[in-house]
Every structure is written in structure tokens, then in C-alpha cells.
Automatic annotation (TrEMBL):
Gene3D superfamilies membership: Hypothetical protein ph0010, domain 1 (3.30.700.20), Hypothetical protein ph0010, domain 2 (3.30.1490.150)
Cited Pfam families: AMMECR1 (PF01871)
InterPro entries for the chain: AMMECR1 (IPR023473), AMMECR1_dom_sf (IPR036071), AMMECR1_domain (IPR002733), AMMECR1_N (IPR027485), AmmeMemoSam_A (IPR027623), Uncharacterised_MJ0810 (IPR023472)
Highest classification ranks of the organism: Archaea, Methanobacteriati, Methanobacteriota, Stenosarchaea group, Halobacteria
PROSITE patterns (UniProt xref): AMMECR1
Residues covered by the AMMECR1 domain: 12-198
Protein name: Protein HSR6_1125
Organism, as annotated: Halodesulfurarchaeum formicicum
Amino acid sequence: MSKRSAQHLNHSQGAWAVEYARRVVEDAVREDRTPERAEAVDPVFEVNRGAFVTLEKAGDLRGCIGRPSASQPAIEAIHAAAIGAATDDPRFPPVVESELAPLTVEVSVLTPPEPIESPDPSAIEVGQDGLIVGRNGNRGLLLPQVAVDQGWDARTFLAQTCRKAGLPTDCWQDTPTEVERFSAQVFQEREPRGEIEAVGISAGD
């Protein structure tokens, strides 16, 4: 079994991840302290995985922070990402308690990145692949759903990931640049504190 198809979460596991991320966000905002990490209720969350937590308010991004490397158990990555999305996204002020009710929470659980030896837009599957570009200490990552949301083709997705890394948009064509891809399972609230659904990207069963 490849890394890209291994360790899929089912719907109940994904729903638990979103509910857990929401609890962490609310505790971090309401109690103004770092919430304690819960014990995983399912062994799948003790497997090392990267994760991102995205917060939206009325359809607009309100915070998104991730732990992309598979260097810690998934539950720790979700916990850290949820705190970061609520309190430490440099693009936004910290979430305040009055904003909690209209927030929706999304969790993306990542597969381990795989290098693309000879980057070619035809090798990128938009809607399936997320991208990481790195060179000379610069590093940029875009989740699979970003390309879908923005209507990008594979070449534009590569260019925008280079831009995210602070590199020229055509740097993916240069040999010193490292390009990796990964997939993600994405689970989100349809509405604040509402039903949780698996969306689009390798959603599993």
C-alpha cells in the first residue's frame, strides 16, 4: 500500500477530528491558555501524520495553520494546528470569543509527502495533490483544495506554490528546487457546529 492511500480515516474518525479541533479552538479562545491535549480515542490518531486546521467566518478565511510533516501523532498535529489557527496566524488578529459562534472548522489530515523527481504539470492531479516547494531554506505548501477553490490548473498550482515559498514562480522547473506532493483527507462543518462532511479530496469511506 502506498503512502498516498494508507491510513485513511473513515467518516466517524474525520468527524471526531473536527469536533476535537473545535473544542481546542474554543478552549484556547475562551480560557486564554493553551488547552491540554486529549488522549486519542482511536489508534489512527496516534499514527504520525501532518494536519491543518482552517477556520472560516461567513465564508471568509479567518485562520489556517498546519503541521505538515509527519513527525508527530495526528492528534498532536491537530491540537497544535487548532491553537495556531485561532491564536497565531500572522495574517489575522487572534480569534475572540464573540467570533466563535459563526466560525466553521475544517481539518485536513495529510499523507506523508512524496518527491516528484522531474516536476511536470501533467504529473500533478488537481483536486488530489497538494504541493510543497523548497529551495535554499525557502519552503511553501498549498493544500489540495486551494487549487480547486481558486480554479487553477496544474501549472498555475506549481507557480503559486513557488510564490508561497517566496521563490520565482517558475522555480519548479529548476533542478535545485525540490517539489513534493501529498494528498489530504478533508472534513468540515457544513455550518457552524453543524453536520460534518468529508469533502472532495481523498475523502475515504
